[in-house]
Amino acid sequence: MSSRTGDTDETGAADAAGGTDETGDPQRDEEAVARFVERFAADMTEAGMQRTASRVFAALLASDDASMTSAELSEQLGISPAAVSGAIRYLVQVSMVGRERDPGSRRDRYRLHNQLWYATFAQRDTVLSRWEHTLRQGVDSLGRDTPAGARVAETVAFFEFLQKELVTLLDRWREHQATLRHDEG
After folding, report:
1. What is the pLDDT along the chain (185 residues), one digit of tens a residue?
2. Distances from the Cα of 82 to the Cαs of 8, 28, 76, 86, in angstroms?
């Protein structure tokens, strides 16, 4: 493999240095970006996310300003505006994307939330609490000494453990993020 700017490795991924244009702005290999979007979308789909929502999310993630219109998403992904609308509806519902309008425009822009991954996992804390409450009621309903009750009780214990560890992990991330910002600045 050569080390020239814009080369790809054996997986087809472009090297990190995409070069610059005549103004000195970084260039992007749009084919490599499209491959990344489809690869990451496939990973998210395999993990259970809707396919079109995965593709829209990955396209927004790969967008320099993390923001695109329905028309831009439709064109980039080769899907209908209706498909974009359905995907956006899902992504808004799970708090991964927000809607906004440019001043003076009637066209919606869809934007990834700041601190997207932190917020996504922090919201899981609320979901886990709700599940724990319902599962505790299930243990009482099923009877702690029944096989089903014991299985649900173990699930409650797992979610309690997960929730405690998630809070600790998110706190550690904030500390780590602060060191990253300090190192950059």
Report:
1. 333 334 444 444 444 445 655 655 567 899 999 999 999 999 999 999 999 999 999 999 999 999 999 999 999 999 999 999 999 999 998 888 999 988 888 889 999 887 777 777 777 777 788 889 999 999 999 999 999 999 999 999 998 998 888 888 888 988 998 888 877 76
2. 35, 28, 14, 6
Three-class secondary structure of residue 98 per DSSP: strand
Other beta carbons less than 10 A from residue 37's beta carbon: 22
54 dihedral zone (left: phi>0; alpha: psi -120 to 50; beta):
alpha
Q: Tokens 């309690």 map to which residue?
A: 160
Sheet holding 67-69, edge to edge: 67-69, 108-112, 97-101
Is 44 within 8 Å of 54 (Cβ atoms)? yes
Q: At what angle do helices 81-93 and 70-77 cross, to 10 degrees?
A: 110
